[in-house]
Amino acid sequence: MEDSYIKKMNMKENICMELMQKADEEYIKNNHQHTKQECAYLQQAATLRSELASMSIGEERAYQQRKLNELNRKITKVIMEVDPEFMKRYKENKQKEKHLKNGSGAGKADTGGKEKPLDESIASWFKEAPKHSFADVSGMHELKEQLKECIANAQLKNLEDYLKMKKLHSYFFIGPPGCGKTYIIEAFAHELMDKNYTYLSLAGSDILSRYVGEAEKIVTRLFEEAENHTPCIIFIDEIDGVCKNRSLPNLPEYAASITTAFLTGYNRINSSDKDIIFIGATNYPNQVDDAMLDRVELVRVPFPDLDARKRAFSHSLKEIISLEEDFSYDEMAEKTEKYNYRDIDRMVSRIKKEILKQVIHQYPGEQNAIEALKAGKFLLTREMFDKIQEDFLPTPKDEIEKELDEWERRFKKGIE
What we know:
Blueprint: H1 2-29, H2 36-55, H3 58-82, H4 84-97, H5 119-123, H6 141-154, H7 157-162, E1 169-174, H8 181-193, E2 198-203, H9 204-208, H10 214-228, E3 232-237, H11 253-272, E4 276-282, H12 290-293, E5 297-300, H13 306-317, E6 322-323, H14 329-335, H15 341-362, H16 366-374, E7 379-380, H17 382-390, H18 398-415
Parallel strand pairs: 1-4, 1-5, 2-3, 3-4, 6-7
Helix pairs in contact: 1-2, 2-3, 3-4, 6-8, 10-11, 13-14, 13-15, 15-16, 15-17
Region (Disordered): 94-117
Protein name: ATP-binding protein
GO molecular function, one term: ATP hydrolysis activity
């Protein structure tokens, strides 16, 4: 666990330094004039530095916070030159926020939303129906029933009106990387699009990759589009990037401004009382602002269960190779407890490479090898599977599971 922590810290530190170097190169390239691209690099570096500070303790945390403060001062200086109006708006919003409680009145803040992103960017937010539905999702039986109930209730508009129920349904999906959050959300969107819902989807990283001041405009416009295209489902992956917890130590000013814009947009669709289903997903719920968490229903997505792992292996292998008589997909599933879908994909990739190596050796000639596989002359054996697994390292999960468990306990205690 300690090695994993150090590895993660070093990786973030290296990326942070690379971004700062890119910012310096951008400054030099433009004859020592500050640019929006330079600021974008610095903002990304500050986000990483903030994460490093939150992951550290003692002297290391103090060091990271000093470095973050230096970055924030540099970002402020650059913004003052390339977009002075942004800083003016930010200071005005900070004054207004003093009179707000938990961000609930953030809708009054002016984030410059009147300046709209390019139409071609907006068009990319509207997605076609995902090809998979609930029928293609293995396991997650309780979660699927919960989401099916939401779909059924969404068709009872008159009854909801009579009961004076809010039309906005909000879900907050958490879980370790690779556990299938995006997959089941897309299946949910597929089912809703069969009911004539519009599907809007955007990742936090897509928003943050924009230039200074534009992220707030994108967030504002995204919620406007949702309101104008009801009924709709809006899915924001990596929500921790665009709704950063404002209580985090030394949070960069631009990140707090994006959070305010995000809460503004969310409050807008909430008060509109239109048929909107909002979903946010993250691997890091502790990074998300508390004012947002107060408004959503928590959904914990587990690791693939036995049935899901069996189905994943079977789906990837059954059409290309047969198994030896006393070996089964059930056994593969039993041997891979706590594997996530990414682990299974990597394992399958190694199995296929081993098959290729062995079958071409036993049946020289590409066509002969293919025919041997089709005819069931070459089989995937338990011995082959076990040997591959012996050298296979699934992604570490204990640390993030512990963090999620602890966060979920605090979250549930806070709402009791």
